[in-house]
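User: Fold both of these, please.

Assistant: Here is the first one.
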Amino acid sequence: MSATYAPTDAFDEVDHLRRLRRVAKVARVMDTAIRIPGTGISFGGDSIVGLIPGVGDAGTAMVSLWIVNEARRLGMPSHKLAKMLANVGVDFGLGAVPLVGDVFDLFFKANRKNLAIILDHFGHDGMIDSRGDIRPMKDITPKR
């Protein structure tokens, strides 16, 4: 009984795209999951959890750092990782300021900025539509 296997590169590409989609979903949930009708303003878990004094901004920073770590694991260069860490630092630092930080979180979308850096680096910048939803992708699953 013989089996036919797809080349390793095909599985690597599938895993790579799967990771990108996961990062895109987390960034959307954190920054743009809820839209206020008629205003064009959207927010997500970062704005909501950030309302909890002290631990809220620290918790959302941990999720943002997970996105940066995924970018590192995908092979992003260190200068782009530094830019992503700066986005997380600004979001955490200014987001922790009472009241002003909560308004700041509505408009500064660190996770979306970091996702844009990742997608631009890997040439997948058309993967996300204008609202932040993931566009349907063609099936790239290796055929057996």
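And the second sequence with its predicted structure:
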Amino acid sequence: MCLAVPGKVITKIDMLGTVDISGVTRQVSLILLPEAEIGDYVLVHAGFAIQKIDEEEAQKTLELFKELGLYAEHNG
């Protein structure tokens, strides 16, 4: 099963971005999504941003992950 997690792009330098996923930051490759900009929400899978999504969809997905026990607050 493949799972992509939504995050908000908070920095971008060339094709490397930092995303915020519920308060946890991760560096991801933007090579597959070069149009991603700071402030965009993206789906992250295996260290790559693979698709842009809107903020509402990102928040809904994170809430569902929490309900299913797939994601704990602050990765704890």
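The first helix runs from residue 55 to 68.
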